Amino acid sequence: SSLNKNSRSISIHNFSQLYSRIIIAKDKKNKEVLKLKSRIKELRKELNSKPDIYFEEDNEILYDIEDLQEDLEELKQTDLYHFDDLVDSLRDNMIESMRIASLGV
Length: 105
Prior knowledge:
With 105 residues, the protein is an all-alpha fold.
């Protein structure tokens, strides 16, 4: 009985830590997304603000925008553990604690 209580307490603690780390990782990821979006917006603004821009320069900016958009899509698909190494280990610890608790060990 006390072992079950201890196991539940560990699970709750692991969940709390995991939740906190996920929030941190999401914040880091969102900051990176915002940086890329901001850079894309700047380049588009630059492209639109110069009607007399040379064709080569125009193409270079367009290529930069395209590259940044690809980076943005990749970033959106990136797992949270990339932004915080503890997310995976805490998740695994929580799952293991829950498994042990369900076995009644």
